[in-house]
Amino acid sequence: MKNKSHFVCLSFKRNLLPCLFCLFTISLVVFSKENLVATKNGLLLWANSVVPALLPFFIATELLAHTNIVSNIGKLLNKVMKPIFNVPGIGAYAFVMGIISGYPIGAKIVTKFRQDGLCTKAEAERLLAFTNNSGPLFIIGTVGISLFCDTTTGLLLFITHFIACVCVGIVFRFWKFNDKEVVSVCTNSTKASSHVSFSNLGNVLSSSISNAINTVVGIGGFVVLFCVIISILDNSGVLNICANCVYPIFNFLKLDISFAKPLISGFIELTNGIKQVAQIPSKAISINTTFSAFLLGFGGISVMLQVFSITSKSDLSIKPYILGKLLHGIIAAFFTYIVINNCAFFNLDIVPTFSPNVEKSASILANYFNFYNIFILLLAVLFILFLIIKRKKFATKY
What we know:
Blueprint: H1 2-30, H2 32-64, H3 69-85, H4 91-101, H5 105-115, H6 121-130, H7 136-147, H8 151-171, H9 185-193, H10 201-235, H11 238-252, H12 260-268, H13 270-279, H14 285-298, H15 300-311, H16 319-342, H17 357-397
């Protein structure tokens, strides 16, 4: 009986992806009209936002990889990065570029470090957890100015996004803490010595541009694919079913259930989800902003698969990245909520000017319990993450 159930389980795992692919193909035909619009929107989003924002940075990182700048940064900042994040000094380069340029530059740089032997597997996985982030161009420009029509909101989201990123890096300094792998100094010096010169400048430029274009085209494929997937899920009613399933959680946290469907969309694909969250009419705009902060920190399944397509070329595990981005989203949302409700400069909520004291007191009490529930949820997630890291540490030790 046990062997039979085991066989059924293996058979299910073996046939799951083929069944999903067949279902996806059928859905492309059934919802062809809607999918055509979604594909065009995805291509426009890629051409207008992704290519201008990421292609120059991809080319720059490819060119810098052929210089000794990265190794020099590593030597200079090793005394800062090692105590705080338990990573080598070259991690500062991945951290800064990941913050400036946005998804998935950080993951590409970290994977390149690992392929070149500039860091251990554990160090690369720690870096992967906090160096792949949304960039200021997207947060302040697209989300703040374009979607929320407010620069202050974009600035707030970027500040809390950055602070949460640092917090995740500090937490993940304990990931595989007792790892014994060391990086060969000879390997590092060899990699650093292979730098660009005038004699090979043409080849370096050609290969850098070619690699950057390949990466950007791959990202475009993910953007279009997930725009179509969201369109299929929406038109087939699956998104509504998923939204109905999470309604009890929203009721427990005393949150507006109209945010359920946009959050699920953002959980799948970042840009579409934030756009839907920003468009929900709400007197307490802090709720829209807080949910957007979570989505920006998490990044969505689309970005996650983009990162996986990059890290799969190395021996890095995607697990620390998933845990790190989930924690990043929660911490960013928590800090955003705290700042909006305690800093007058960022408090953008529309509060009625004339209201009875009783109603005002009730509103304050409701906000308190809302904050309390979110705080308890945050502590629970932090505790679970601590247990996972502790278990990994114990398994590595023994």
